[in-house]
Predict the structure.
Amino acid sequence: MYINFNAILEEEFDANFLRTPHRDNLNCTPPDILEFPNFMRKKNIGYVIISILISLYLFLILAIVCDDYLVPAMERLCYGMRMSYDVAGATFLAAATSAPELFVSIVGTCVTKGDIGVGTIVGSSVFNVLGIAAFCGIFVSAATQMDWWPITRDTFWYMVSILLLFGVLYDSKVVIYEAAGLLSFYILYIVALACDRRLQGLVGKQFDEDNIMKENPMEREEDPLKTFKETIMERPDPEAKLIVKIWWAIKYPAVVLLAITTPSARSIFPLSMLLAVIWISIISYFITWLLTIVGYNIGIPDSIMGLTVLAIGTSVPEIISSYIVCMKGYGSMAMCNAIGSNTFDIFICLGLPWTIMILASGKNILINSQGLSITTGLLIGTGLLVYICFLITKFSLNKFVGWSSFIMYVLFLIISSYIEVVTLPTVCDIESEDYLFLNYD
């Protein structure tokens, strides 16, 4: 075989053939878009518009999955196990609605190896508490009274999870005992919930038997569970407004697709719940990819995209499920779902992917953004401020709590985004000649 050594010495060859040094040698941070399929990587306003439109429709599908399949299936499961509303919200409902965060975190840790997963968890943790409290407090017409014990219990565990996460991110490095420690603490959390009745007795509180799920979702007249035929054949009222008919036409393809692929919660509800979670995971991957394209084109760092847009998007299941149960008067279940989701996000959605990745690669995980540790510290303040609002209103989820949470969330976004901009390292320009080879890694 003939080798042209002169060409090699003069570098008259494809630079991508030999110039694929490791990313470890770079003096900048590769953007997360490199870890997704090589599609729509060049900056183009058309790509932004396409990605936003598809993402919005995926959010709509996500909402339908939660409203029509996940929440009804969870209701049937919790009713069959005779669980209390708050424990059901903090465990099964929290775990199920956290499927987007779990999948995004897995993608961010094992695929992109960047900060978008951590940023999403941190951002969704704030949104779950402040955003859901704001949404339910503002838009639910009547104030919802809650039990002080479950809110206090789950807030305590949420504070524990934040302190542990702050300790993990403080040195911008995750080692195996830190990742495994997060998983271990979730087991302790589940044990504490299993012993909830005894713990209530220790604090001098009598367990309320009325808090047990007694309403059979299969028999209720209000908001009944729909069959496949009822779902497919549902049409808007002929006398409905035009905007209602347009909205029905927009979402009907998604309704049909989900009805064909996912059984109704009236039938085999465990299968309905499983397929709903699979749908949520698939949708979450594409939302992550599309919003990464948007962030890359606009110039928004990956960690900030995770803290803002992606955090809100992946929290759609929590918003919908919490609003649904809050409208039914189960305020404790709604807030325990929100706070319990945060505990699940930190202990499982971060601890599990980190543990798997460290064991598989044999290397510690490095966090690019030093600002995430500071932002994580802000979570403690937001959690305590919401709890103080509940103390002021005597654990009533009303408009005061709603608007206070909304203001705090806006302030958090401003402060955390500023910290990220100041502390983030330079991002590689993959369209420049110096870093063009990254597209071929």
In short: The first helix runs from residue 5 to 9. The radius of gyration is 24 Å. The mean pLDDT is 75. The CA atoms of residues 358 and 364 lie 6 Å apart.
